[in-house]
Amino acid sequence: MGCCHHYFAATEGGEDVFSVDVSSIAYGPGALREAGEQAKALGIKRIALFTDKRLAALEHVAIVKNALAEAGIDVAYYDEVRVEPTDDSFKAATTFAEEAKVDGFISVGGGSVIDTAKAASLYATYPAEFLAYVNAPVGEGRPVPGRLKPHIACPTTSGTGSECTGIAVFDLLAMKAKTGIASRYLRPTLALIDPLTTHTLPANVVACSAFDVLSHALESYTAMPFTRRTRSRTPAERPMSQGANPWSDLGCREALRLAGKYMVRAVTDAADHEAREGLMWASTLAGIAFGNSGVHVPHGMAYAVAGLVRDYRPEGYPDEEPIIPHGMSVIVNAPSVFRNTAAACPDRHIEGAECLGADIRGAGEPDAGEVVGARIIELMKPTGIPNGIGGVGYGAADIDALIEGTLPQQRLLKNAPMEIGAEHLHRMFEGALSYW
Ligand SMILES: [Fe+2]
Predict the structure, then answer these.
(1) Could you report the per-residue pLDDT of 279-315, keeping only the tens digit for each?
(2) pTM assigned to the model
(3) Does residue 164 belong to any structural domain of this protein?
(4) 169 φ, ψ to 5°?
(5) 63 with 117, same domain?
(6) Which of 13, 114, 176, 229 has the greatest number of CB atoms lying within 10 Å of its CB?
(7) Residue 211 alpha carbon to ligand 1 centre in Å
(8) How many domains does the chain have?
(9) 42 Cα: distance to centroid of ligand 1 (angstroms)
């Protein structure tokens, strides 16, 4: 079977149009010092500054606070963000946002912080029952009614790409499952990206973030082409997860190239600033790309892998409770998933592997899954990533529960290049138990 990504060959009933929605971006070393002037330019007079307790002690937050003070902007400060947020922590942040009486938001942190600011801004502006805006079928999937207040997102890890996407992810405690809210109105107004923030990150945080980037790019690149999605009746109904398209392909290819080149260097040598900063740019590119195409099965499975965690505690993360960091929960599935999806679009899988630095000489279509899977595993080993889902505490007996936790992630599963049902997920989880 040949590759399915011939965008401009029309599909009966399929979509003809793709759209590109992008945050404004200010990128470069020292960018955080622009926070005050950037906020002023957005007309903000009083701003809610979101961060978490650990980051609050680091210089990035101090730099932003100083910049805001110098620009004469009043700050309402919130450092109660939870790493891996929950519905409860989103609600607490919303209460703060309602009482703070601000006209804008600034988030300084990883995906957890940025996502929490998005949710707090949403519920403070358009109050509703919590599940109203949450993705169906877990929530109602009600459309966000309109624009939110300006939000400046300042990432301090090179991974989630949340500063460029309209997605906020959290754990729904009652279901022990990760889910999210997705709307283009959640996309930050400005992504203020300072690669200097990567210099002080613990090695394991760099590894997990970098694999999140890698998987964003490879999932977007191999996603169902937008032309195969049923045509949206109106532009407003066109989903952000619209499928692979010529725009997202551009960012994916370069993000994969940078991830393949810098991943091991950035993790194993904290002084290798070129590598760490290169991953920040890769994260930005992948964020812009998947924010306009969507990810698929490795992320869908990751929600279950992270949500059902029992006692895994990684280095470099707060250790009060067990946690499987997002990027780790994604990448432990990825080689097995791509080995299974390769048959749907082998060319794309081989190209992805080539961008990642694999030697693809002599590789034909039947080798596509193996080529890309082997290259990811080759990067996992020297960067301290656990050996598959077995390495983070799961065994064959857990597969049914993991499938049950993945099936509700229809927004992601439907974006795969092939149809995904319980039997496919079974094969994919089984193949992810261990790799070496
Ligand atoms: Fe991700």
Answers:
(1) 999 999 999 999 999 999 999 999 899 989 999 998 8
(2) 0.93
(3) yes
(4) -105, 140
(5) yes
(6) 114
(7) 9
(8) 2
(9) 28
